[in-house]
Every structure is written in structure tokens, then in C-alpha cells.
Amino acid sequence: MGLSASTAVFLASLTGIPIAYMLNLMAASLDEKYVFAAGVISLIAIVVLTYVLADNKKKLSDPLFYVFSICCFSSVIDLLIGLENDGVLSGFVSFYLKDGEPYLKSAHGTLICYWDGIGHYVMYLMMLSAMAWNQDFRDCGLYWVGSIGHSLFVFLPGNVIGKYGVKWSFLLNVPYVIVPIYALARFLNERPKATIPKKQSQTEYSPIWKRPVDMLLILYLAASLVLAMFRGFTVLGCNPWYIRDVEPYLTDPTSYPMLQMLVYMFYFIPYYCMAMYGLVVPGCSWMPDWAMVHAGAAIQAQISHIGSAIHDRTPYIHRIPMTFDSMLPFLAINLPLLIIPQLMAARCLMSSEYFMPVEEKSNDSLKPSQKRETKKIK
User: Fold this and answer.
1) 17 CB-near residues (< 8 Å, 6+ apart)
2) pLDDT digits (tens, 9 = 90+) for 188-205
3) pLDDT at position 10, please?
4) Model confidence, pTM
5) Which of 106, 219, 274, 376 has the fewest Cβ atoms surrounding its Cβ within 10 A?
6) How does pLDDT run across 119-172, given as a tens digit for each residue?
7) pLDDT tens digit string along 263-320?
């Protein structure tokens, strides 16, 4: 008797633990090219194993099923990397950290491994379960696209320009660039085409100054826009006092925090402007989708940024001191950037009618006499 698709992926992903341990034992006879080859073979084997274990193979025609099965395996490996970096485990992935992706030994690498091994892993299992039960997983998928997409925006360029350099195993990250783009295009194309009657849209929604929650969200977006601009210019050489007194982590030699601030400046600021418009003007149907993407990106960004800034693997000179005077301004700036995007996504999902486009009257809804008059006018 076969297993459900989600259970098969879960069990197959756990093979990452013995596989990592066995490869670590053979590390003395492997160089970096063989480490890369071993990674590719392992990923292919996981797809085959998942297909064999799963019960209803008719449900496995969705290509995202195989993507998520590989990602689950990678999440288990990433969790092992995070635990080994922090000394909780030993002898599982030390070979990979040395000859595969040495930049994962950084504080930022440790934090993104924890998030991938816990946060992304939960998302994969949720989407796989929904897939197996023929339920919708579009919102969770958009959240995941934002999270993993943002992680790669910072991680991949940081590996190239940072102090660690890259090796052959860097190429294992290439599929994780292509897949989120495909998934985002698919999820956006699957957006429900619901509308609301014109009378309802004119009478139900009050002006923005009579909606205090939306007003507060707009104030947050405006403040975030200014902060993103300020910190972007800071890492480009302006405002040295901010780095010295508030966020010394921005000058970490790994370059991840600098790239993080530039992503905020060049990618988040356009979203902030679009979101302010979407909260003021009803009928912006794209708003809930991009709020989910932004919420996923924001939680990944801030967990990795806050955690790396206080982690022991960050050099002391760049670390945020664990004192009240240092932590208060740092958390006052960074925690709202983590929490409020989640509240905005919840607001968009719970009141999605506000973002539905207004129903347009077609000729089919007119009376026969009205149709004849319309034709005469034409």
C-alpha cells in the first residue's frame, strides 16, 4: 500500500540526515567537483524515491510536486547546517561547509539555513498536503515565492562579492532562481476574476480618512519608504553615524547586510508606493497577491537580518551589543518591518472585497430596447 504524496515527500526528505552523514565520512576522498556531483545525484534520487513511495501517481503530474519534494530534502540539509554551525550537531555537513558552500558558515548563512529548514519546510508540507487533498495553496505559494525569492536576491550576489568566494556547489542554487519565477507567474495567472457590483462599490467603502486601519498602514508604508531610502544611502557611504551608533552590522564584510539594504531601496520602495495607492483606491485586484509576496519577503529579510546582527558568528565589531541602549533602537526600527507586513497581508485577505474590480455592465445585461439604442448610437 502506497503513502499519500505529502507523507512520501516527508519521509524521503528525512533521508537527508543519513545521506549527509555518509557523505561526510567520505569527505577525505572528495574534492569540490565531486561534492557538487553528489548533490545533484542526491536531488535526482529524492525525486525518484518520492515517486515510488507515493500512492496516487495521477496526482503527481504537477511539476511543483517534484520541486517541493527536492526543496524539502534541501530544507533538512539546511537545518543540519544551521545546527552544526551553532555546535548542536557535529560530523554531518562539515565537508560541505568546507568544500561546497563555505559562505554558509557566516551568520547570515546560518540564519537563512534555519529559516529554510523550519519556515520553508513547513510551507512545503502545507502546499504538498493541499496538493494531495485537491485544495488551494495559492496564498501559501505566493508567501513562499516572496520568502525564497528575497533570500536569493541577497544570498547569491553576496556569495559572489563577499569574502568567501564561490565553488562548484554554488551552481546547486541555480534551480532555486528559476522555480520561484515560474511559480510566481503561475500563481498570478491563477488569480480569481471576481468582481463586485458598481452600486456596492460606491456605497460600501468610505474615504481613506474614515478608515483608521488603512490610514495607519499608509503611515507605516510612508515611514518604511523613507527608512529604506535612508539605509540604502547609508550603506553607499552616507550617514556613518547611523552605522556607528545604531546598526554596525551594515558594514559586515560578507556584504549580505549591504545587499539587504539595497534590495529594500530598489525593490521594496516601488512596492510601498503601489501599496499606498492600492489602499487609497478601491478595486486594485493585484493588491492581495503582492501583499502576500511582500509579507514572505519581509519575514525572511528581517529574521535573517536581526538574527545575523546579534549572532556569535558575526565579528564583535559588527555585532549589535546585547544591551538595552543598543537593542532598543535596533529592534524599534527592524521589528515593525517584520510584523506590519504580516498584518497588511492579513488585512488584504480578510477584506479582499475592497480590492475586487468594479463589475462592468455589458450589453447582455441590457434590455432589448436598450441594446437597439446602443446599436443606433454606434
Assistant:
1) 76, 80, 92
2) 998 877 666 655 554 456
3) 83
4) 0.88
5) 376
6) 999 999 999 888 878 888 999 999 999 999 999 999 988 888 877 766 766 777
7) 999 999 999 999 999 999 888 889 999 999 999 999 999 999 999 999 999 999 999 9
| 73 burial via Cβ count (<10 Å: 0-12, 13-18, 19+) | buried
The pLDDT of residue 362 is above 80:
no
Cβ atoms < 10 Å from Cβ of 213? 12
- Three-class SS of the chain: CCECHHHHHHHHHCCHHHHHHHHHHCHHHCCHHHHHHHHHHHHHHHHHHHHHHECCHHHHHCHHHHHHHHHHHHHHHHHHHHHHHCCCCCCCCHHHHHHCCHHHHCHHHHHHHHHHHHHHHHHHHHHHHHHHCCCCCHHHHHHHHHHHHHHHHHHHHHHHHCCCCCCHHHHHHCHHHHHHHHHHHHHHHCCCCCCECHHHHHHHCCCHHHCHHHHHHHHHHHHHHHHHHHHHHHHCCCCHHHHHHCCHHHHCCCCHHHHHHHHHHHHHHHHHHHHHHHHHCCCCCCHHHHHHHHHHHHHHHHHHHHHHHHCCCCCHHHCCCCCHHHHHHHHHHHHHHHHHHHHHHHHHHHCHHHHCCECCCCHHHCCHHHHHHHHHHC
Handedness of CA 367, 371, 377, 378 (dihedral sign): positive
Cell of 41: 545525484
Cell numbers at 76, concatenated = 533538512
At 32 the pLDDT is 59
